[in-house]
Amino acid sequence: MTAAAQELAERLAQPSERWNPILVKEVRQALRGRSFRWTFIATLTIAVLGVLTNLADFNHLREDAHGYFMTVHFCLVAALVGMVPFGAFQSMGSEWEESTADLLVLSALRPRRIVAGKLQGALVQAVLFFAAFSPFLVVAYLFPGIDLAAALIYLGVILIASLCASLAALALSTLSKQRFVRVVLMIVLGGQSAWLIPMLMVLGDEVLRHPQQFTSDDEILSVYATIGVALLILAGYVFTLACNMLAHPEENRSTNTRVLTTVSALLVAAYALLFTRWMSLPTEVISVMALAGLAGLSAIGLLLVSEQRALGRRVTLSVPKSPLGALATAPWFPGGGRGVAFHTLHVVLVLAVALSAIAWRRPSAPNFFADGVGALIVAALLSITYVTLLPGLLARLCEGSGARLAVRIATPIAALLGLLVPAAIGAFVGDRDLARLEHLGNPGRLIERAWTQDGLPLRLMACVAGGALVALLVNAPRLVRSTLETLAAARVHRARDERAALGDKAGQSRA
Amino acid sequence: MLTSNRPGGLALEVDRITKRFGDFTAVRDVTFHVARGEVCGFIGPNGAGKTTTMRIASTLELPDTGDVLIDGHSVLEEPRRARLRLGFMPDAFGAYTATTVLEYLDFFARAYGLRGKQRTKTIAEVMDFTSLAPLADKLTTSLSKGMKQRMCLAKTLLHDPAVLILDEPAAGLDPRARVELRELVRALAEMGKAVLISSHILTELAEVCDSVAVIEAGKLMAHGRVDDVMKGIRPTAELWLRCLAPLDSVERFLAERHDVQQVRRDGRGVAVEFQGDEAALAVLVADLVRSELRPVEFAPRQTNLEDVFLQLTKGRVQ
């Protein structure tokens, strides 16, 4: 090695060995790049000017520092949920624009490390902003009118909001490489910031004006907890989306979404149980949460049941070798048919957990109608029908990406038409029930009626159940094909391992 | 650390790969291989399927049928292992803004999982090898095209791959940079690395390649050692001859010989398609000298890669 090379080696010896390489790169780039430096300086300058304006009326400030605090926080919020997410969006986009995406894919970095590294980079920038604003914040606490605990909670909320906004920005940035679409995505990101900044300001104002409410009120705390769980799950999906978009098209981009859905369903179930017990809430709350869960599951399910049919060549070799293992894990592997199995399985899971929870929470036998059990069953059947029927009928179209998108858009449109067309016909022929959306195509009304003391008439219940059965029958060929394909994949995997073992033996005997 | 791989054995095996994009078949049933220590030139007109083949071999695309083995690892079945044995330099690659050369290489070394002293040593060696050490603190965006190519090559070498796939590395380089790149490629081959290199600058390839694979309209037209491919497409030798005697009499003299296939006027002399070995050629020269044609210039014309390319390809695009 030459002396110059030796010198380089010494200079590179830095205490950042275990850090995510993306984080190291992002921080280096941000600190040297113009955009971060200028936004940092500009934000601080605006904050200083705001502070000086407040200090001009020092007598008022001595009595109530609320206005001062809000001025400083406006700048901080604008930086954290406006500029930091924008930086994250640009950073991810630069991987396409600077043609470095392929080089990253070929390295040992997996998509989740890339997204995590970018997110950590955004967090470091947020912390730098916090550090720069800390003198202003410390000064605010010296004045009256600021509750320290409430202010700290609020600062924590801002930091979490910044992280979530950055994660959303990263996911948005992975959606398209096309310049025009990226401009649209940037506008969406701007909309996110334009909504978040005033919302956080209003929240901050409320927190500072009524600090007791936000630090000791059980109901408010339960709202925090619920929002926290919802955000955690949403963040999980957004993170998975970003990872899937970064992953190579030939890689398995479905299993992580499916596993996340299973974990989320279990997490929500556990939370619902603890929540209703902690808050001593009526069992109807469990049904409402299960209905919300079914709605979320239906949205995810639509994406999964409209996936293309075949397992990719790379995915085939990740199917378990044993037929039993392959069958047991089949719903978590990519493919529309397996998506139908996955969706039906999870609908049943949500229903089972909700019914068990209701039974556990009630000392007496559950009231089929008052507890919303009937409504839950109707919702579960409707979810299977709405999510699987149309993709099942149009399964052949799901092989192409454009047609797949069309099927995904057509499904909710068909549901909407099912709701509105009978109403229009009713208005035309003078049928008041139809015109008032009192018909089978209105899932909300069906669920609502199933919740009432009278329940859903048997005739309607039979129609709902029949719809789900028809949807499953339509999908039966897909289910059979996908099961056979999974078993065939297990055989391929086994055969490959046997070939490899034979090759090893042959090599050893030659040696 | 750049290690010398033992020569011999196949490092890159492209086995009957076909790739379709909708109705369009970009690559059809292409098979070839590159041994350790061998530089294989991959040539073909624009749109012939070179980049698709290289991207398949680099795990970035998946073939519809067939497979590629990188140092024994299938790009289908073990893409991650294949990537660790593979260095791919795409035709369009990026250089991060606000990043120095040293930081760029440090980032990719970390991305390949190199840690601590091993990383610093490897970066230093790779920079030494590519003569980038004096540019360590330069911003990547301020580098010339040639220097950027060197930087990307250095990045490609960080994890000491057994197979290098270089897509148009000489495009846009000035003559000096091209010569330097050629020397680097030869040095890498001498270390035992298998190099698959595509370029439109065939004269450059001819000087660095041991073998050649010619592709057109997605089909492999020829593959083998450069000399073998040349002999395959042109079994006869071409000579150029100028005599002081009139061209008519020179043509008549040559046309009467059984080992001369064809004679045609070419400038002030004649071009001769000669079929025979070197002994027969010596006889021809002796006969010419004894004749009254008074030869003053006699030169065998070398078949080069350009001839191979023109002979094998028709400029068909898909």
Summarize the structure.
The complex is a heterodimer of chains A (511) and B (318). Chain A has 511 residues and is mainly alpha-helical.
**Which stretches of chain A are low in confidence, meaning pLDDT under 50 for 5 or more residues running?**
none
- Compute the number of structural domains of chain A: 2
Q: How much helix is in the residues of chain A? A: over 70%
N-to-C series of helices and strands of chain A: HHHHHHHHHHHHHHHHHHHHH
Helical amount of chain B: 25-40%
First and last CA, distance of chain B: 42 Å
Structural class of chain A: mainly alpha
**How far from one another are the termini of chain A?**
39 Å
Give the low-confidence spans of chain B.
none
Structural class of the helix and strand makeup of chain B? Answer: alpha/beta
What is the radius of gyration of chain B computed over CA atoms, rounded to a whole number of angstroms? 24 Å
Shape of chain B: elongated
Q: Return the average pLDDT of chain A rounded to an integer.
A: 84
Which protein chains are joined by the largest interface, and how many residues does each one contribute?
A-B, 42 and 46 residues
Count of alpha/pi helices of chain B: 11
The beta-strand count of chain A equals 0
> What are the secondary-structure elements of chain B, in order, as H or E?
EEEHEEHEHHHEHEHEEHEHEEHEH
Overall mean pLDDT of chain B stands at 85
The total strand number of chain B stands at 14
